[in-house]
Amino acid sequence: MDKNAILGMVAAAFTTASFLPQAIRIIRTKHTKDISLSMYVIFTTGIFLWLIYGISIRNIPIISANVITFILSFTILILKLRYK
Q1: Among 33, 40, 53, 58, which residue's Cβ finds the most Cβ atoms within 10 Å?
Q2: For residue 80, which of 47, 45, 42, 34 has the smallest C-alpha distance?
Q3: pLDDT tens digits for 20-46?
C-alpha cells in the first residue's frame, strides 16, 4: 500500500469514527431533539453518493470510509425519525 492510500485510510478512519459517539449516545439516551433532521438527510445522501463514486473508481479508502459512515449516519437518521 502506498503512502497516499495509507493517508486516505487514516483520514477515513478519523472522519468515520467521529460519528460513533453520536450514534452511541442516541442509542443509549433515545434523545434526538437537538439533531437536525434536514442535515442528516442531506449528509446521508451525500455519503451514499460518495460511496457510489468510490465504487465506480474502485478506491478502497473511499469505499470503506463511506460504507461505515453511511451505516452510522443512516442509523442516526432512522433513530431521529423514530424518537422524534
Answers
A1: 40
A2: 34
A3: 998 899 999 999 988 999 999 999 999
Tell me how far apart the alpha carbons of residues 54 and 47 are, in angstroms, rounded to a whole number: 10
For 63, residues 6+ apart whose C-beta sits below 8 A from its C-beta are 51, 54, 55
CA distance 25 to 23: 5
Nearest Cα residue to 1 out of 67, 52, 53, 9: 9
Instruction: Report pTM.
Output: 0.81
Retrieve residue 36's grid coordinates. 437536525
- What are the grid coordinates assigned to 15, written together? 472522519
Q: State the Cα–Cα distance between residues 35 and 73, nearest whole angstrom.
A: 12
Which residues, including other chains, have CB under 8 Å from residue 29's CB and lie 6 or more apart? none
Q: Which three cell numbers stand for residue 53?
A: 463514486
